[in-house]
Amino acid sequence: xxxxxxxxxxxxxxxxxxxxxxxxxxxxxxxxxxxxxxxxxxxxxxxxxxxxxxxxxxxxxxxxxxxxxxxxxxxxxxxxxxxxxxxxxxxxxxxxxxxxxxxxxxxxxxxxxxxxxxxxxxxxxxxxxxxxxxxxxxxxxxxxxxxxxxxxxxxxx
Amino acid sequence: xxxxxxxxxxxxxxxxxxxxxxxxxxxxxxxxxxxxxxxxxxxxxxxxxxxxxxxxxxxxxxxxxxxxxxxxxxxxxxxxxxxxxxxxxxxxxxxxxxxxxxxxxxxxxxxxxxxxxxxxxxxxxxxxxxxxxxxxxxxxxxxxxxxxxxxxxxxxxxxxxxxxxxxxxxxxxxxxxxxxxxxxxxxxxxxxxxxxxxxxxxxxxxxxxxxxxxxxxxxxxxxxxxxxxxxxxxxxxxxxxxxxxxxxxxxxxxxxxxxxxxxxxxxxxxxxxxxxxxxxxxxxxxxxxxxxxxxxxxxxxxxxxxxxxxxxxxxxxxxxxxxxxxxxxxxxxxxxxxxxxxxxxxxxxxxxxxxxxxxxxxxxxxxxxxxxxxxxxxxxxxxxxxxxxxxxxxxxxxxxxxxxxxxxxxxxxxxxxxxxxxxxxxxxxxxxxxxxxxxxxxxxxxxxxxxxxxxxxxxxxxxxxxxxxxxxxxxxxxxxxxxxxxxxxxxxxxxxxxxxxxxxxxxxxxxxxxxxxxxxxxxxxxxxxxxxxxxxxxxxxxxxxxxxxxxxxxxxxxxxxxxxxxxxxxxxxxxxxxxxxxxxxxxxxxxxxxxxxxxxxxxxxxxxxxxxxxxxxxxxxxxxxxxxxxxxxxxxxxxxxxxxxxxxxxxxxxxxxxxxxxxxxxxxxxxxxxxxxxxxxxxxxxxxxxxxxxxxx
Lengths: 157, 697
Fold this sequence. Notes:
The structure holds two protein chains of two kinds. Chain A is an all-alpha fold. Chain A contains six helices and no strands. Helix content of chain A is 62%, strand content 0%. In chain A, α2 packs across α3 (61-76). The radius of gyration of chain A is 30 Å and the shape is elongated. Chain A starts with a helix and ends in a 6-residue tail after the last helix. The mean pLDDT of chain A is 80. Chain B is built from 19 helices and ten strands. Chain B starts with a helix and ends in a 69-residue tail after the last helix. Chains A and B meet through α1, α2, α5 and α6 of A and α13, α14, α16, α17 and β1 of B.
């Protein structure tokens, strides 16, 4: 493939992937139905007695109660925040599967970011720190290479 | 009687381990290497003890020897043979028997494999480390978690049988042994790493020795984790396969560091770099298997499927602390000998991509570990009770996973040392086209949402890059293009892509509805019709199964059920799944049907492409096996330096093998001017990374 065609090809590939991503992100297939909303909310609350399972996953009685509460609230037109606040009032913070982002608990969001940034800086330093250093090829190296090449029939040129 | 024999075997194992470890250490410290031969006998005795103890327990389970407390906890008269056999690993003490059996197997295999190097210090220390590990596990069984404790039962006692969730699916017989083969397998590279640190033979020799062991352990762990996910999907009845449960997290942690290791180790073999990092990864992998066992077996982190907790917590924590502390000290002690001999030349190079890979795997492992132990930390800090569940893990794992997919597309085509834009634009063009086509296809088929569609795009990109390597290799080498580490690795990558696509599709486009049905009624969910034909029940002395016959789309009949295990008095839902290439229909009864009532509450979960996850796992296993076979051997006369600037270049396209046979994969001499493996000349016997540079020995 000639170089110019390839450049055009890459432009097309990048443009296509960007526009397809935009379509995927913004065409969400219509407004959320009540059933979809119930499903999403059930996925986002923990069953308080089931050690980390969501109320959607759990078969426990209390999970069924909360599922029913969510379904009723959605039908009554309550907002997500109202449902969340009511559940926290009844079952405390452990009903939230997503930890809060304040106080001590915020560390769970902050620490990974700090670590990745530090790691990336470290890796970056490991790579760039070595660049530009002179690498001398000694005569001995060149001779060794020449010998190796002639032994293997010289088809590596 | 069984109890006495069994305990005898366990004690024998402990004694042989202690004597072997002590004898080996004495021989090594005093330099009387001929004494190392005696270690051999101790190893055979340990294997005998482990096999014996395991066998005695199985015999006791089949004889229903309820005098043994363990049998009276997990055995029953009515358990079918397969589940009775698997009952051994359904609780703590028995799992330790399986663990020791696998560990002793690896120990014996190591000794047989390296039998010709009996006087080698490195091997001697590796055996001693393994013997210390067997000492610990036998000691657990002699002391706090003795499987052969006896008890008194009333006459007529018939036993409860294993946990109901562990006696209704055949995968219970395969998932734990696979997982243990993986977990325990990482002891071998760990033992060699520690031995290298002790002897100071820190060249690349120990890596080459343990390469296949590591890859095999990784393959077992992968298979074990995926079989576990499959078991969870088929048995637990919530329609998912991965819940970010502490037990699951404990299994994925060593997998992540192990995966990082089997990638970064290639940098060390090629370039002699990253020595400290690789040693740390091997040791971290081993320590994480112990930490994971501690987290799940001590009851400190509650989990839905921690099937047992016992008094072994403090022991495991101590052992974890000792292993971690010892390796940190050893690495510190040898620090001056671990300086790298090479340098990374460019950000666009194979070695730099492996560094990025390690950063991502490390970040993923950190996030999962943090999320798993954070509730403990929070409770210790201010007494607050938090739940860290799937939303947290998902939101962290998704971006990291996408970055890994992207890297998986780029890295395989990158040459070592330095890549030019030209090379990349040629090699990546068709993979990128495949990626865009995948995105377009996903949108055409109705897929929406930025995460899944980008996953499909990057998946196509990565699959294209992997397929390109496989195609080029088979074109050049025939069937040999499918074996060896590099080629097998690409098959594994294809499996990972299938798995990632399956995960994205089944998580993003799942629908979950609960419907009420009376006999004869039909409900429609997502275009499928579900007709309730009739209820039914079957009873035996083990269980009472109540089911509902459901016809899907006027065609196949499925029978979701609830099963009451009578000896335990526990009712579990038993889902029924229609598995398909593009979509799974998962039926589960939401409550036990009232006797006499003709109504049921049926939960219908529809998830696309779940089968791709299992298929991807299968492909990963196949790729691992292919990677274990020796690949193409390189001729000793081929040059190992990068070509001179005026000749070919390090970036030549391997598509034209006749003219430039694979120059980008030739071994460069590290900057220090010495080849890696100087202290281990000729040790490797297999694939393309064989140390030609040191091949004069």
